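Researcher: Please predict.
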Amino acid sequence: MRLWLRESERRPDPVPLPTDDRRAVLTGLVLWSAALAVTFAFAGPLSAVDESWWRWTIVVGLALGALGLASLSAGRARRR
């Protein structure tokens, strides 16, 4: 097996498949929201063992997901 092929020996790159990345981001946002609801449901036990940082991790995940969704939507609008 050769590790390097000359450009003339390579096959052309395949055409990328069309995907809807917003669906994946929205799924992640729904899961982060569900996790936030769980941390609010168990707020007492989490505070007792000083695990309140979990909630902030989820909030950051939601914020980054919202930024990603906005970025994907803006990119989609530019391509139209």
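Model: The helical segments are 21-41, 43-48, 53-79.
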